[in-house]
């Protein structure tokens, strides 16, 4: 609409046609030169950008180039459509890059639409597998049977990850909190950083009287779900809300997506929020969690794997849905974690994608595949569980 | 008029041939080419209506499904929990936020847009006017997510000063009270939306002002009017209905803006009298935020909220039409 308006304006059509034509030509010249400057600027910018990514990717791919032996293409070919959780997007991207290099006959498209939309697409038979940051609910499992020809759809835990609590507080580089204090902060019960409860956990820190700005996700998200599940499991008397992907507590501020939250923490003094560890880059400090162990636990990939190792398999048969242990007593186990699952049909997978699905899942569950996760700040699934996942994948049909 | 006088003056030599001519003319309409074209155009008209009806029926059906499962009151509940048992959700907060943010945007954008349009058409040297018009056109071409990113990364961090000032001098009104949170509130969104709708309103207003008959302006000048009086007496009355239509176009964009609002706003499911503290969300923002993780019921609930936005937009457009029709006598269209 605007271009036509602009053209009409330039063409004029009213009185005094001549001078206008001249003006128009000059304007166009000026516009062109402006455009040229803008384009060259953009080119320079993208050039810088691609340089950066080139470097960081270069390190990763050269290190893992030898891993390709773990990928067995067999007779897999064609297109593999998948969609779902955006929390595991970076992991899938890394895997797909490796897989593509080894099996050029298979094309994998993972669309990070979000877990809910991913499960819907899987149920409607549009995708070969779905990614989800929580296992199938009973009603979802019933619906998913349709896509599997009456057979069950199963959850395969594949990617773990610590949820970090990031904060922005000048002069405080180490902060320890426990679930009950976190619950009170995010529920608006603790409003300043020098509150007694925080001071008690951090006797050595110089806490300012800054107001606490607690940020939560404005969109529905598995990260919110897992974070609130943790609060509810460990501090039920301080967190009265039911879990769920939508934020339940009143008050506080919100932002879109994990990147939006990380952005706010970076910008706003006194801010605190939760996001996957990979977003806690660029100098965002993360909280150490006080667990039942003697020393507070840092949010790291290794510590998350230690905590996931204490999880129990809650699914039946080949369904490997996990029930996470939020109160580990082991030293160095970081309990605030998120596990994403790949959801496939136990039997009755589509014939034309079965080979490719099995081949790809076998790779990502393999030792080499899981090793790749640490580079992307995800946590590998502990040995005991991933062994079960591997045997389940080999029996898919 | 010409035709009627011709007919009246044409001497009817013999009445019968003319009837025959008429007959053959009407028979001409039934020639195959005409018939096919008639069928095609009628068909596409009906097809369009059928598609619209099908979409409306589908949306209404899904919306009705959601509302029937709503544990709260769909119109008054201050909550949006679709994945819980029982699901409780309502559009009160969304309707409030949508209308308030769009109103702020209109209040800020319309005067500025009219000013720019007047400057371009009546004050600026031609060369400068052309450049400004070009830059305004550029503003309209920026994708809304870019506005959103700019808003979140540049505008929001720079709003602290304005918010502090408003709170200090106008905090007593309650509307401009600020608790000191991140300035990601209705006012910030309104300002961002104002920038986004500025080009639409400016462009349309400019075209309207450009079409003011030269005679009107010269007549006013001849009566000894100053430039401002010329604008007040001839340009503004002539352009009034056009400016209203332009504002409605802008309002439509402000009501439906999605990504920019979702990136900048800190939505909460309660209503706050203060425009500076978090409170409220908008329909489009809520749909964009919740859709990706929504359960089937959640999707239906979002569709229902979309229908409400549709109804609000219809009402606003209807109101604008009524205003324009009532003002028609002032416009130059029939002068």
UniProtKB/TrEMBL annotation, chain A:
One of its GO terms (molecular function) is phosphate ion binding. The keyword Hydrolase does not apply. Residues 76-367 form the PBP domain. It comes from the Bacteria. Keywords: Phosphate transport, Transport. Pfam families: PBP_like_2 (PF12849). One of its GO terms (biological process) is phosphate ion transmembrane transport. CDD domains: PBP2_PstS. Phosphate binds at residues 85-87, 115, 133, 221-223. GO terms for cellular component: ATP-binding cassette (ABC) transporter complex. Belongs to the PstS family. This is Phosphate-binding protein.
From TrEMBL, chain B:
InterPro entries: MetI-like, MetI-like_sf, Phosphate_PstC, Phosphate_Transport_Permease. GO terms for biological process: phosphate ion transport. The keyword Transport applies. It is found in: Cell membrane. One of its GO terms (molecular function) is phosphate transmembrane transporter activity. Residues 1-20 are annotated as: Disordered. It comes from the Bacteria. The chain crosses the membrane at residues 45-67, 87-120, 132-156, 186-205, 242-265, 301-324. Keywords: Cell membrane, Membrane, Phosphate transport, Transmembrane, Transmembrane helix, Transport. Part of the binding-protein-dependent transport system for phosphate; probably responsible for the translocation of the substrate across the membrane. This is Phosphate transport system permease protein.
